[in-house]
C-alpha cells in the first residue's frame, strides 16, 4: 500500500470513529418524547462547551431547539430549561416528582443535607434550620453579633491593598462560624476555614475518590469536621456552662419531638456553613466592584449610611430599624445578584417516574438545569437589563414578582435570604463609611459556571 493510501485509510478510519462516537450517546439516550438537542461524546458529552461557552452555548441551543432542550454535561444527560414560566412551574411543583438534583459529590460530602431530602424529612430539617437562620432568629439574636463582627472585621484596612474576594469569603465564613460556636479562639476559626475550603472544592468536583483529587480531599475534610464537632459536642455535654449560639440551641432542643441526634446536628452545622458561603461572598465582592464602577450609586449608598451614622453616638451599634431603613443598600444587593448572575440556575431531577413537561417526557432519574440567568436579563421584566441600575428595585413590587428567582422559588426558596442580605448590608455599611477604594490593574473575572476571580480581585483601600 502506498503512503497516500495509508494516510487516506487512517483519515477515513478517524472520521468514522469520530462519527460513531458522536452517534453513540445519541443512540444510548434516545427516548420517545424527549426535548430536542444533542448529546456529544460518550462520558464527557458536551461538558466542555457547557462550561467554557456557558451562556453563549445556552443561547445557541435555544435558537436551534427552543427553551427546553437536551444535552449531556457534568457526567449525565441533562435537560436545560430556559423559560421563566416553566422554571417557575418546576420549582413550585416538587410534589410532582421534581426534586433537587445536585451532583453526587455534594450528596456524599454534605451528608443528609436539606437539599438532599424530600417530603416529611425535608419539612423537619428545613423547620429546624429556619428556627436557627430565619428572619425571627436573625432579628432576635444574630443581628447584634453580626454587627459587632463586621465592625471589628473591617477595622484597620486603611492603606492596604487587599483581595476583596478573599476578604469577602472570610467574612461570609467567620460570621456564620461565630454564630454557631461563640468564644472559640481565632486559631480554631482559621483551621476550620482551611478544612472547609476543601469541603467546598470537593462538592463542586467530579466524584473520583482517588488520592490527590479535590473530591478525595473533600471527603477527608468532612471526616475532620465531623471529628472536631463531635469533640465540641462532648465538651459541651461535660460542662455546665451554657452558650448563646446555634450549637447550644441545637443541643438543647430537648422537649421537642423532633429532637435531632448528634449526626443530624453536625449535618445542620455543615449546611449552615456551606449554604450561604459562596453566594454571600460573591455578592459582596461584586457589590464592591459595581459600586466602584458606578459613582452615582456609590454616592447614594454613602448618603444612606452616613444618615444612619449621624443619629448615633460614637460606638453605638446598628439597630434592626436602621437595617430596615437601608432600602437603597437592599436595592444595590438585589441588582448585584441580578446583574452579576451570582446564581445562574438551580438543579432538579425527576424521581421514580417519567415527568411530563411542556408536552415533552423527561425520563425518570434525569437532571434538569433550571437556568434562571435569562430571566434576570429579560428586558420585559428589567428595562435595559445590561445596565446596573439599583434604583429599579426601589419599586417594591419588583422584589416580590413571580419571576424573581434570585433566591429560588417554591418550597425550597432560600431560608437564609434575609440573613444573607443583612450580612452584606452591614459589611457595606462599615466599608463605604470608612473607606474609599481603587481597583488594582490586572483583575480578571469569570462569570460562568460561577462568578469567580481566578487570581483575586485586588483593591487599594484608603480612609474616607
Ligand atoms: C446572597 C445570598 C444568597 C443567595 C443568592 C441564595 C440563593 C439561594 C437559592 C437560589 C436557593 C434555592 C436552591 C434550590 O432551589 O435548589 C437557596 C436555598 C438555600 N439557601 Fe440560600 N442564598 C443566599 C444566602 C443564604 C444564607 C446566608 C444561608 C444560610 C445561612 C442560606 C441557606 C440556604 C439553604 C439551607 C437552602 C436550601 C433550602 C431548601 O432546600 O429547603 N442561603 N439559596
TrEMBL record:
Residues that coordinate or bind heme: 414
Localisation: Membrane
Family the UniProt entry places it in: Belongs to the cytochrome P450 family.
CDD domains named in the record: CYP90-like
GO CC aspect terms: membrane
Keyword Transmembrane in annotation: yes
Pfam families in the cross-refs: p450
Source organism superkingdom: Eukaryota
GO molecular function terms noted in the UniProt entry: heme binding; iron ion binding; monooxygenase activity; oxidoreductase activity, acting on paired donors, with incorporation or reduction of molecular oxygen
UniProt key word Oxidoreductase: yes
InterPro entries, A to Z: Cyt_P450, Cyt_P450_CS, Cyt_P450_E_grp-IV, Cyt_P450_sf
Protein name per its UniProtKB record: Cytochrome P450
GO biological processes: brassinosteroid biosynthetic process; brassinosteroid homeostasis; sterol metabolic process
Organism, scientific name: Crotalaria pallida
Regions crossing the membrane: 6-24
Alphabetical UniProt keywords: Heme, Iron, Membrane, Metal-binding, Monooxygenase, Oxidoreductase, Transmembrane, Transmembrane helix
Necessary cofactors: heme
Membrane topology annotation: Single-pass membrane protein
